[in-house]
Give the backbone structure.
Amino acid sequence: MGANIEKIYECEVKRLFRKGRFSKEWRWMLKPVPEAISSADAKFRCKHCHGALKLQSKLLSDNASPHVVHKSRQDSEYCPAGIYFLLSKDGRLPRLSLKPL
Ligand SMILES: [Zn+2]
């Protein structure tokens, strides 16, 4: 595996919290990827750009740490954690996802 592969080891998951006596609210929490996977969370988002992430299961081998990548290439192009952003040499600035979760 080369270095030019996006690997994100932490992601935000949505959790329901009790708020006061009768109400609950959804909040994003930062979790290590293995923990996010083992819970039933359906949605992961990037802590930097808030874009959707997906589990990179195809690349997983026994000695690889579970990690996630941006679902959208566009997010990866403008996220500080995105491989396309990191490889870009045009001095572009990071920005939030165009379709934030
Ligand atoms: Zn991102």
User: Anything to note?
Assistant: Strands lie at 10-19, 23-32, 44-45, 53-55, 68-70.
